[in-house]
Specification:
Layout (H helix, E strand, L loop, with lengths): L15 H5 L42 H11 L3 H9 L15 E4 L2 E5 L4 E7 L2 E5 L5 H14 L7 E5 L5 H4 L2 H8 L2 E4 L1 H10 L9 E2 L4 E5 L2 E7 L8 E9 L2 E8 L8 H21 L1 E6 L6 H10 L12 H23 L14
Parallel strand pairs: 4-5, 5-6, 6-7, 11-12
Antiparallel strand pairs: 1-2, 2-3, 3-4, 8-9, 9-10, 10-11
Helix pairs in contact: 2-3, 2-10, 3-10, 8-10
Length: about 350
C-alpha cells in the first residue's frame, strides 16, 4: 500500500453557483445540451441529439456505415450523442461545470463541464481517473468536489490518466505533490509528454501495461490499452456498486478520432478488442470523460430523480455493446472518408478531448 504524504492546504470554497450551474441544462432524458464555442482543436458533439449528416456531400463509400450507426442508435439519446460526437465536423460544446455527484455509491463525477474526471472511492483511499485541465481545476473542482460528497481529497492514492492531453493531466502533479498520489499513464503517452513538453505535465511516474490491474481497498480496476485517440490511450473497467448491487463500468479513454487511415484503423482495432473485454467483464455501465454520451444530462437526471428510480448510467450489457457497435460503424465511415480520392486535408493533430 502506498502511504501519501499529507500537507495542509487552504482550498477555495465550493460555491453555490457551481452547484446550480447545470440547472440550465434540464434533467429530461432527451434534453440536448447548450451549445457554445469549443476549443479550436476540439471535435466532438455540438448536440446530444443531432444525427450524422448523410447528404450529397458524404462520400458514397462512407454513407452506408454512417447510416448503419444511425439505425443502431435509433432514438436512444446516449447512442445518438455518440453518433454526433463521431460525425465529421462536429464541435465540442462548452458546458457549465456541474456540481459533483455520485453516479454510484463508490463513483463520483467531478466535472469542468466540457471535460470530467471520475473518483473511485475505496475502503483504503481514492483512485482518480483523469485530473482535468490545470492545477486550478485540482484546487477549484477536484478537491472541493470530493469534500462536497463527504470524501477526503487527502485519500487520493492514485491518479490514472487515460491519455496525455492537457485537459486530462492538468491537475495531476498538484495532487501528487500535495497528497503523495502516484500518477499512472501508458508508456507511449509518457513518451508523448516527453516529446511535447506541455505546461503542467506531471513528472513521469508509473507505467500502465495493457491489462494491468490496480487494486486499492478491495477494489480492482482493469486498465486496457486502446490506442487511437493517442498512441497510448487507456480505457478502464471499474467495479461500481449501488447498495447491494454490483456492476461493471467502462470508460472509453479518448473518443475523438485521429486523422490518418493507419491511426483510424488502430482506433477501430482498439474498439473491437475492447468489446471483447467488455463482454468478459459483463460491462453494464458506460462512462465518458467528455460530454459526448449524454452523460451530463444523465447526471442531472440522477441527481434529481426519486430514490429507487433506475440509474440512467446502467445501460445493461446489450446496450453497452450496441454503444461500441455504433462507434465501430462510425469509425468505418471515417476510414472510408479518409480513403476517398477526394478526401480533404485534415487539421493538425489534436491536443485535447
Amino acid at each position: 500500500m502506498i502511504h501519501p504524504t499529507r500537507r495542509t492546504a487552504t482550498d477555495a470554497d465550493f460555491t453555490r453557483r457551481r452547484f446550480a450551474q447545470l440547472a440550465v441544462l434540464g434533467i429530461a432524458a432527451g434534453a440536448a445540451p447548450i451549445a457554445a464555442s469549443a476549443p479550436a482543436s476540439a471535435s466532438a458533439p455540438a448536440s446530444a441529439s443531432t444525427p450524422a449528416s448523410t447528404d450529397a456531400s458524404t462520400p458514397s463509400a462512407s454513407r452506408p456505415h454512417y447510416d448503419r450507426a444511425r439505425r443502431l442508435a435509433g432514438d436512444d439519446p446516449v447512442l445518438r450523442a455518440l453518433v454526433t460526437a463521431l460525425t465529421p465536423g462536429s464541435d465540442l460544446p462548452q458546458l457549465p461545470a456541474p456540481a459533483p455527484v455520485k453516479l454510484f455509491d463508490n463513483l463520483v463525477l467531478l466535472s469542468a463541464g466540457w471535460v470530467s474526471a471520475m473518483a473511485v472511492l475505496t475502503d483504503d483511499g481514492i483512485v482518480l481517473i483523469d485530473a482535468l485541465t490545470s492545477p486550478a481545476d485540482a484546487d477549484g473542482i477536484i478537491v472541493p468536489g470530493l469534500r462536497a460528497v463527504g470524501a477526503d481529497p487527502a485519500a487520493i492514492k492514485h491518479v490514472v490518466l487515460t491519455h496525455g492531453h492537457p485537459d486530462h493531466f492538468g491537475g495531476a502533479q498538484t495532487l501528487a505533490d500535495r497528497y503523495g498520489a502516484r500518477v499512472h499513464m501508458s508508456p507511449a503517452d509518457w513518451d508523448l509528454l516527453a516529446r511535447t513538453r506541455p505546461a503542467d505535465a506531471p513528472a513521469r511516474d508509473l507505467d500502465i501495461a495493457d491489462g494491468d490491474q490496480l487494486t486499492l481497498g478491495g477494489t480492482t480496476i482493469e486498465l486496457h490499452h486502446t490506442p487511437g485517440h493517442t498512441p497510448g490511450t487507456v480505457s478502464p473497467v471499474i467495479p461500481v456498486r449501488a447498495g447491494r448491487r454490483h456492476h461493471s463500468a467502462m470508460l472509453w479513454g479518448g473518443l475523438n478520432p485521429p486523422s490518418t487511415v493507419e491511426e483510424l484503423r488502430t482506433f477501430l482495432a482498439s474498439v473491437q478488442a475492447f468489446r471483447g473485454v467488455m463482454r468478459r467483464a459483463n460491462v453494464e455501465v458506460e462512462l465518458s470523460n467528455h460530454p459526448n454520451d449524454h452523460g451530463l444530462e444523465r447526471a442531472e437526471q440522477l441527481r434529481h430523480q426519486p430514490p429507487g428510480a433506475a440509474n440512467p448510467f446502467l445501460l445493461g450489457g446489450p446496450r453497452t455493446q450496441r454503444y461500441m457497435a455504433v462507434m465501430d460503424a462510425m469509425l468505418r465511415g471515417r476510414i472510408a472518408d479518409a480513403e476517398a480520392p477526394t478526401a480533404r486535408a485534415v487539421a493538425a493533430p489534436l491536443t485535447c478531448c
